[in-house]
Design a protein that fits this description.
5-stranded antiparallel beta sheet; about 500 residues; about 10% strand; alpha+beta
Length: about 500
């Protein structure tokens, strides 16, 4: 009875439920935060509960408390209006009201403190890669996996997709609501479409770390390949990549000339693979227009089409979410010593197994675990016995290749999203540098390979030992097709160094 008298108007089911929800939510927030700090575990669903569900439960509970008290007061006023005034009286001389006021102040301080901490940690949680990559695990698994194996694996998603400033943070969160709805209703496309139309310009994000004016020299790079033959014969291409000199200056040249000069283009497809129109700003402020000789646009189409100012992401469109072809993954495995090149036809066998259609990752891993040992048991029984450990190591590596680059649940594989850097598996540079974009004065955008890279040396089966090579030599003699045909026309299908299952 004393407790009921002390509680006053709060003694009602609604207020009691509200207080219970508030106390339980507070206890859960404190308990989960303590567990997270002690164990170091950062799980997306725990974060969702701690930073959103439980604070929401706390606020809802505290809102119920005055609602219930107000209902009781109004009910009592209807029966005895002369005893209860329209508005509450705050008299600190009344011990009961003074105690209630002190309790209210202390509870408010605790409430504000808890909600403030939860809000700050909640904001940090929404900025984390755990939130971006693991919360919607089915949808984001391909991109999160590719990010975790990329050169930018220590860069948070928001640093590129949102960047600094409140304006883009708000825009990103509003856009995120639409994405959450798509996940909740299973209305998202498979695969997820790219490029992102409203992605923040690279000059606001990438260039905070990658300062174009400082990328002025060439860069030597060695490409390691292995032939899909019995010996997994090593191949090597030593190149000087002409990054360029002094971008955004009168001496701009090389690959980074493209960001030192204003270049606009029109793409006729969503993936920006087909570029029929290019405009380059000249020193006098005029524009030189280059038109595709195969698919020219009319003046009316050019006037109404959306022109895009070229930036870093038009070439570096997969700087983080990088998927690698089976052939490239096998080359890297041989070069790094993770798999044994002494296993006959390992590259060819692995690529063929990886390229088969599977409905689930588990199904693919079972096929790899059975297929590679079976091949050596049937065709090279002596190798299977003597190199059983190497075969098992190869199985594990190839299973890893599949899990990094194939996601059948989302209909994503290594070649779903074209990578515009280079031109081996996708048109890349040749979208513009194809020798088929011509200006009105007759000037053509060149397809000369030496504009971007210079061959310093090359080693492979069809090059005699010690011979100096300064032009790329194809592993198979394809005649004039090396100039007429884009590399990707042959290599994009199977992800191998030599199309057609590696048959010479």
């Amino acid at each position: 009875m004393t407790l009921r008298k002390t509680a006053g108007y709060l003694w009602n089911p609604i207020s009691m439920v509200g207080l219970l929800l508030a106390f339980v939510a507070t206890g859960l927030i404190v308990a989960f935060l303590a567990m997270e700090m002690i164990t170091g575990i950062e799980h997306p669903y725990i974060g969702l509960l701690v930073y959103f569900a439980f604070p929401g439960m706390l606020i809802f509970g505290l809102l119920l408390v005055p609602v219930g008290a107000w209902r009781v007061r109004q009910q009592r006023r209807t029966t005895t209006p002369e005893e209860i005034p329209p508005y509450p009286r705050l008299d600190f001389n009344d011990p009961h009201k003074r105690h209630l006021f002190i309790f209210f102040v202390l509870a408010s301080v605790i409430f504000v403190l808890i909600v403030s901490i939860a809000s700050i940690l909640g904001f940090e949680f929404t900025e984390s890669t755990t939130f971006c990559g693991e919360l919607c695990h089915t949808v984001m698994t391909p991109e999160h996996t590719a990010w975790s194996n990329s050169p930018h694996a220590r860069v948070k998603c928001v640093e590129c997709h949102v960047g600094p400033g409140a304006k883009w943070y708000v825009k990103a969160k509003i856009s995120g609501l639409r994405q959450v709805w798509a996940v909740a209703t299973h209305s998202y496309p498979t695969p997820i479409e790219t490029p992102i139309e409203n992605l923040r310009p690279a000059r606001d994000t990438c260039e905070h770390c990658h300062w174009p004016e400082k990328f002025y020299a060439g860069r030597q790079k060695v490409f390691y390949h292995y032939a899909p033959n019995k010996e997994n014969t090593p191949r090597e291409i030593n190149m000087l990549i002409n990054i360029g000199g002094a971008p955004k200056s009168p001496h701009a040249k090389g690959i980074h000339w493209h960001i030192g000069t204003e270049v606009y283009y029109i793409a006729s497809d969503k993936k920006r693979l087909e570029i029929p129109y290019i405009a380059v700003k000249q020193k006098d402020g005029s524009f030189m227009e280059f038109m595709s000789t195969e698919k020219p646009m009319t003046k009316e189409q050019i006037a109404t089409a959306k022109k895009r100012l070229m930036d870093c992401t038009d070439c570096h469109n997969r700087p983080t979410h990088i998927y690698k072809s089976p052939g490239q993954e096998m080359d890297e495995g041989f070069a790094s010593g993770k798999i044994d090149p002494a296993l006959p036809y390992l590259k060819k066998v692995a690529v063929e197994i990886l390229e088969k259609p599977y409905k689930l990752q588990a199904e693919a891993k079972e096929a790899i675990a059975a297929g590679i040992p079976d091949y050596y048991a049937k065709n090279y029984p002596e190798v299977a016995r003597q190199k059983a450990a190497a075969v098992n190591q190869a199985v594990q590596y190839v299973q890893g290749v599949y899990s990094r680059n194939f996601f059948p649940e989302m209909k994503v594989s290594w070649n779903t999203y074209p990578n515009h850097i280079g031109h081996f598996y996708t048109p890349g540079c040749f979208r513009c540098h194809d020798g088929k974009h011509k200006a009105s004065n007759g000037e053509v955008i060149s397809k000369d390979c030496n504009m971007c890279h210079t061959v310093i040396g090359q080693k492979q089966e069809n090059i005699p030992a010690g011979k100096v090579v300064n032009q790329f030599v194809h592993p198979v003699d394809i005649g004039d097709e090396i100039v007429k045909t884009n590399c990707s026309d042959c290599h994009s299908a199977g992800g191998e160094d030599i199309p057609g299952g590696g048959k010479l």
